[in-house]
Amino acid sequence: MPIFSKSWWLDSVCGSNNWDVALVEQDDKIIASLPYFVVTKAMIKMIVMPQFTQTMGPYIIYPADQKYDKKLSYEKTIMSELIKSLPKVHKFSQNFHPSIENWLPFYWHDYEQTTRYSYVIEDLSNLEKVSSGFSRAKRRNIKRAEKIVEVKYDLPVDEFYKNHSLTLKKQNKKIDYEFDLLEQMYTAAYLNQSGATIYAIDEANNIHAALFIIWDQNSAYDLISTIDPDFRDSGAATLLVREAIRHVAGRTTKFDFEGSMVENVEASFRQFGAIQKQYFRISKINSQLLQMKKIMSLILR
Q1: Cα-atom radius of gyration of the chain, to the nearest Å?
Q2: Residue 4 in 3-state DSSP?
Q3: What is the pTM of this model?
Q4: Domain 123-253 is in which class?
Q5: Above 90 in pLDDT, residue 299?
Q6: pLDDT band at 297, cuts 50/70/90?
Q7: What was the pLDDT predicted at 177?
Q8: In whole angstroms, what is the distance from residue 90 CA to residue 289 CA?
């Protein structure tokens, strides 16, 4: 099960009382699950994605040696059962894990789909090969940074938050998450041996960049990154990515940059030799009022 659908993660980002899970059971065994996070705003009840949670969606256990046509039929049955088990809400919006390639059962229940993208280094077993996939610009950044900064681990959570707030303030931006949320994620990740902070610091104790990464047995994720604009040209951010990949290589198989639909960020991820991976955003509006607002926004574009 992907890290973003595990109970300890959902407890940390949703609160233990704010999420639930739809289940399908067979012969007293759970064969499928779909966790969901419910929020209510202005009397509108919605299933949405928690902050810092890339994907959720169905997790299905398949019978062994299943033929392709049987697999599709099985998915139709299982997903239909999951859909029926969801609570009634005015709006549903979830990102499904990239392993979910068939969303037709949701389409048949009047859901809609939007394709989104992430960038992933698929195989961390050969670190030399991974590094050779970096662009020349990224390799130059690493050489420059190695002369300027030292890489350290386990930046305390309050220091990480302070650093992120400061770097955003220098760009006339405000941090968009609360310290309590970061503390909950940080504590849960460390307790479950599934996360770490990594930072690059110079001789004058200036933090040039920092990362908060998490991982499970299938993939690591670049969850939060900070870059001090005063030291943007030091190459420290690139060096940290390389060090993060080295750190997780023995713990997992992939490195997910957590994607971005922002053009310049997408270009940077590609330069690490990452491969574009698509995933589905599945949504449905059950409220006539919300449906009218959606139609009006499309007309007024």
Answers
A1: 21
A2: helix
A3: 0.90
A4: alpha beta
A5: no
A6: low
A7: 95
A8: 9
Rounded to whole angstroms, what are the CA distances from 121 to 40, 118, 127, 231? 37, 10, 11, 26
Residue with tokens 């005063």: 230
What is the CATH code of the structural domain delimited by 3-117+278-299? 3.40.630
Helix, strand, coil percent values for the chain (each to nearest 5): 40, 30, 35
Place 286 in a pLDDT band, splitting at 50, 70 and 90.
confident
**Backbone dihedral angles phi then psi of residue 288, each to the nearest 5 degrees:** -65, -35
Q: How far is C-alpha 43 from the geometric centre of its chain's CA atoms? A: 28
Q: Determine the Cα angle at 252 with ends 155 and 195, to 5°.
A: 20
- CA dist 212 → 119, 157, 200, 284, 296 (Å): 17, 10, 12, 32, 39
What is the per-residue pLDDT for 259?
Answer: 65
- Find out whether 244 and 222 touch, Cβ atoms under 8 Å: yes
3-state secondary structure of 185: helix
Backbone CA torsion sign across 127, 128, 129, 131: positive
Q: For residues 22 and 54, give the distance between their C-alpha atoms in angstroms, rounded to a whole number.
A: 19
> Which two structure tokens, joined as six digits, stand for 211?
């990362």
* Residues whose CB falls within 8 Å of the CB of residue 98, separated by 6 or more in sequence, listed in order: 55, 118, 277, 278, 279
Which of 145, 140, 142, 150 is CA-nearest to residue 204?
A: 150
Residue with tokens 């499309």: 298
Calculate helix-pair angle for 236-248, 136-146, nearest 10 degrees. 100
For the chain, the residue count is 301
For residues 178-187, average pLDDT: 98
Which residue intervals of the chain bear CATH 3.40.630.30? 123-253
Closest Cα partner for 80 from 102, 98, 97? 102
- Residue 292 scores a pLDDT above 70: no
Pairing of strands 112-121, 19-26: unpaired
